[in-house]
Amino acid sequence: MGNPCASFDHYREFVVATLPQLKWLDGKEIEPSERIKALQDYSVIEPQIREQEKDHCLKRAKLKEEAQRKHQEEDTNEDKRSNSGSDGRWYTDINSTLSSLESKDHLQPADIQEHSTKKLDTSEDDLEFWNKPCLFTPESRLETLRHMEKQRKNQEKLSEKKKKVKPPRTLITENGKALNVNEPKIDFSLNDNEKQIILDLAVYRYMDTSLIDVDVQPTYVRVMIKGKPFQLVLPAEVKPDSSSAKRSQTTGHLVICMPKVGEVITGGQRAFRSMKPTSDRSREQTNARSKHMEKLEVDPSKHSFPDVTNIVQEKKRTPRRQSEPKIIPNEEDPTFEDNPDVPPLI
Question: Which domain of life is it from (predicted)?
């Protein structure tokens, strides 16, 4: 089904006689009597089929030429619509532009009618194309594809016109003043201590840290969250080099700690502001005194490398103790007793 040869006269008999092994054709079983009759009439049917084939080839050639000519005409019409002039340049009338500028605030009813008529024309053309009878040829299928592609492009153009291009967000004015911006619309809290400023941003818990970019400046802090800026002007000047940013492992919040600067930089002069309590002042005074204290000088000659040869010291020879002189008791000593049983001392 769908084969152009199926429209030929006696095509079934020709196919049955040409293909003896064929049992079914177009959903119908081939009976033996039908096959015998087709073989008998084959000599008459074959020249008719050949003539019809030639006529079909000529018709197909004409259809191809018509399709190519129609396609070229459509291309030329599209080129003329895209270019207002014959040389491809735009030509405008001054009077028409002035009248359009004068009627900018309100639309005339004629313009509205023209716009509505254009829409009706496109819808009518579309209905006419789909309701038009056509042959099941490769050219007709290509024509339908071109029509669908044209509709798609028109829809894309309309959607592009409807889209409003958002202007870029101004974070810093022309005068150099930073603005407070919260485009991601996240909650935050700012804690201002005597020593530092702590900013707590309620960043989404399961957001990847690579999507967050932190930029700390002396007077403001900027955080880019998935390309959306969060900017906050700080109440005091901070040290960007000493600042730190960490994320909580439980809540996912971003905590930025920014230590304050001791001096405030103004337009022409520097005004010093003491941000430290009295205990810190006393510590500084003691440190300054310790720096000015005199220290003992050390002989630089004493600072030398150790002598390896003297690591193991030899044992000093101690003189033997001389035996004390033996005291021999004197017989004249009153406490002396001469016992004959005791041997004499050597």
Answer: Eukaryota
